[in-house]
Amino acid sequence: MNANQTRRKVTIALFVATFLAAIEGTIVSTAMPSITGELNGVQQYSWIISIYLLATVISTPVYGKLSDLYGRKRLFIIGAIIFLAGSMLSGLAQSMDQLIWFRALQGLGAGALTTIPYTVIGDLYPFEQRAKVQGWMSSIWGIAGISGPLMGGLLVDFISWRAIFYMNLPFGIAAIYLLSTSLREAFEKKKRHIDYPGIVTFSIGMFCFLYAMALLRDAGTGGSPNWLIALLFALAILFIVLFVGIERRSPEPIIPFELFRIRMISMANLVSFLLCVITVVIIFYLPLWIQGVYQKSATYSGLLMIPLSVAWPLGSILAGNWIAKKGLRYISVIGSCFLLISGFGFSLMTSSTSLVLFIIYVFMAGLSFGLSLTSLTVAVSSSVGWELRGSAVASNNFIRTLGQTIGITVFGLLLHTGEADKILPTELAASLHTIFIWIAMIAIVVLLLALGLPKLEQGEQQQRNAS
């Protein structure tokens, strides 16, 4: 088997693994009414998704660092096995409590599937090809966004909600087989230091922080008391401070702080964070505008959001093809301009804004996400050598998810739908208008930061020196 065939098999395995991780959110969301109906757990509805995301966020930087220490293949296989075990057990769950625990296990494995594929692509391909392949990989998230609800609906209606978990097994096993038999790593075997104190303090600190954010989001509905939220935030600060102190002394830190001294990585992470704050607002609040302000059905809402799911992979593919020719900064700036136009378009919307304009704004937002996030992924993976690439990509993925978590919580505090039992279109429109104005302001900051990214020539030189 020649090198190109081997690389192609590895790439297919990585695409499959990324698709399984990407589709997990949308396909489970579609099945939630059936799941809660059978397991009698409506009150635990949100935790089925939240616990999965929480476990994924915590495990992402850990997999990134361990893959730098012990190799990509070994950690990918371990993560994939944990993910598949969680999937199988979730399909077998007989209660909501069981399902929540099994989804946490699934999320612990998903941290590998969302991080290591991008790292391996960075290892396998030179800069020019890397951008194109990572563009295709980024487009998988858009494809998953389109196919997830449809696939989930079909499986629930014609088979069972349990099938959405079982379907991961054959594809996951195939991905493990392809990667294990095709990926060859020139890896130096020696005793490695594992930063156990760093892993423990980071996990506890992030758990407390994300749990507090989840409770803060639900606090307005008469959820957890304020003292519990304050206590969780205090514990989060304590353990993160301990984590920073441990990392500064560790010979192999989970999150190497030297990464943030690289201008490309620090800038790309900051832009990624703000982009993902905007992303989560667009994805969650535009359907609310359609249904609550335009007074359209949920099905109609889904149709109007299709341009986002189409434009996102299109932008990713275009970015992959253009980065080597135009440059990372050029693509990021173009994506930021599209985002700025769509952001101001959303902020100027009223109940009488035409659906054609709405669709144009949605399409431009999706195009901007595809262009910008793909170029930032390439920027991060190209700024360091093999020994730090896993940690660098993991830190970027972690910051993106953190941006989504903080974004949905903070803007959720600004959202007012009206009365407890029904949506008042006027009040909803006013609160969403405020949120969209903030999004437009953040888009300005994103554009300014994108203009400050190093040029392609600088990024290429960093990549040559590091690899």
How would you describe the overall organization of this protein?
The protein is an all-alpha fold. It folds into three domains: 1-184, Growth Hormone, Chain: A (Up-down Bundle); 195-251; 257-467, MFS general substrate transporter like domains (Growth Hormone, Chain: A), CATH 1.20.1250.20. Helix content is 82%, strand content 1%. It has helices at residues 3-39, 45-70, 72-92, 96-124, 127-158, 163-166, 168-182, 196-218, 226-249, 263-292, 298-304, 306-326, 328-347, 355-381, 386-414, 425-451, 456-466; strands at 418-419, 422-423. The protein has a two-stranded antiparallel ribbon. A hairpin with a 2-residue loop joins β1 and β2 (422-423). α2 runs antiparallel to α3, α5 packs across α14 (355-381) and α12 (306-326) packs antiparallel against α13. The chain is globular and about 60 Å long. The two termini are 25 Å apart.
Short description:
The chain has about 475 residues and is mainly α. It is built from 17 helices and 2 strands. The protein has a two-stranded antiparallel ribbon.
Enumerate the spans where pLDDT stays under 50 for 5 or more consecutive residues: 456-467
What is the averaged pLDDT score? 80
Q: Could you give me the name of the CATH homologous superfamily of the largest domain?
A: MFS general substrate transporter like domains
Query: Which structural class is indicated by helix and strand composition?
Result: mainly alpha
Tell the overall outline: globular
Q: For the terminal residues, how far apart are their CA atoms?
A: 25 Å
Could you give a short account of the major beta sheet? Answer: 2 strands, antiparallel
Q: So how many helices?
A: 17
CATH topology call of the largest domain: Growth Hormone, Chain: A
CATH class category name of the largest domain: Mainly Alpha
- Strands of the largest sheet, in order across it? 1-2
